[in-house]
Design brief:
alpha/beta; Rossmann fold; 2 domains; eight-stranded mixed sheet; 12 helices; 14 strands; 37% helix
Length: 363
């Protein structure tokens, strides 16, 4: 088959959508399919091109037998609603323009998040009259409201904007010949929105056990995190965004410090829209037992997981996230690292079934 995949994020970006799409497309290509990915220049989370890349109208490379077509976008750091919305819209326009000049594939696949990436796939399928397959990794616009009630366009048009997005959401679902989602919780939400169950396939996230398997801890990484021999290192690895409420980890570090629990050390490995706020919260509390190491190369992630004693997985306490199954859970489980889970619903069921750690109340 000739497959064109629209994805806002792609390798060498290391977030969950980029990793999933990269693994899917690489495996399809290895099975003999002709795969093209239309994506942006890698820049997450700071909104600046990675080394070796420029934000140009068109550039192409071959990664793991996949043809990767990169298009220009208005770049913005992973914070601020207006600039990020312009970033999403610019990708949709640039990706469609580039697609118009490529060979006609047999099928178009598009992934959400983000919302306008999925619409790029829908419009592309109509442009060349080919089937459209939609992958749902997030329920928009509800997820926007869940994590950014105070920041989603506050120009007196909130309700109008959400209504427009809801209309676009329904058109997106009805136009897809097949909807693939990553969890049963999402399937239930889609059915509640009127999508036929026969149209939905659940293909969960997973983990590459060749890349993530038990390995000895790194003394160097533990020292970077401020942990001495005999300390218990508790860490969060991933995006520090509005959905993750990492202030909760800072509060835990503060309580440990107040209680004289000196052998407990905390570390945050990652960047995102809320990192500055979380660091400011830590400074305000006077925490001396938590380190913020910012964005680290994806190649280090296995060693970071190996160096933790406890891996924290956390999301804001909102009903929407009870349907979420965070991909970082699978990596921690593959490394046989105990998880402290602050997520209810389906994620909690997986944790308990696998005896993979302990739950705590989100936030």
């Amino acid at each position: 088959m000739k497959i064109t995949f629209f994805s806002h994020y792609y390798f060498p970006e290391g977030n969950a959508p980029a990793t999933r799409v990269f693994n899917l497309c690489s495996n399809w290509a290895k099975r003999g399919h002709v795969v093209r990915v239309i994506t942006g220049v890698p820049n997450v989370p700071r909104g600046k091109p990675y080394a070796g890349y420029k934000n140009k109208w068109h550039q192409q490379e071959c990664l793991d037998a996949v043809v990767v077509t990169r298009v220009w976008t208005y770049m913005a750091p992973n914070r601020g609603v207006v600039r990020r919305t312009i970033n999403y819209l610019s990708y949709m326009v640039s990706a469609l323009w580039r697609f118009a000049f490529t060979d006609k594939p047999d099928v178009v696949v598009a992934t959400s998040p983000q919302f306008f990436c999925a619409w790029a796939g829908l419009l592309a399928s109509r442009l060349k009259r080919i089937p459209f397959v939609l992958e749902i990794r997030d329920i928009w616009p509800e997820s926007i409201s869940a994590v950014s009630k105070d920041t989603f366009p506050s120009f007196g048009v909130n309700k109008v904007a959400v209504r427009v997005l809801e209309w676009m959401e329904k058109r997106m679902y009805s136009s897809a010949v097949q909807i693939v989602t990553v969890g049963e919780g999402y399937k239930e939400q889609l059915i509640a929105r009127g999508v036929s169950p026969e149209k939905i396939i659940v293909i969960p996230n997973g983990v590459d056990i060749k890349a993530f398997s038990p390995t000895p801890e790194s003394t160097e990484f533990r020292e970077l995190a401020g942990a001495n021999e005999g300390d218990c290192l508790i860490g969060y690895i991933g995006t520090v965004g509005m959905a993750h409420s990492i202030e909760t980890l800072v509060d835990a570090a503060h309580l440990a410090q107040l209680g004289g629990l000196t052998r407990f050390r905390f570390v945050v490995v990652g960047d995102g829209a809320r990192l500055k706020h979380v660091k400011a919260h830590s400074e305000q509390l006077g925490c001396k037992n938590i380190h913020f190491l910012g964005l680290r190369p994806k190649a280090e992630m296995r060693d970071w997981l190996a160096s933790l004693d406890v891996c924290v997985v956390h999301l804001k306490n909102t009903p929407l996230f009870q349907s979420v199954l965070p991909s970082k859970m699978f990596e921690a489980m593959a490394m046989r690292k105990p998880i402290a889970l602050g997520v209810k619903g389906h994620a909690l069921s997986v944790l308990e079934k696998a005896s993979a750690g302990i739950p705590f109340e989100p936030e």
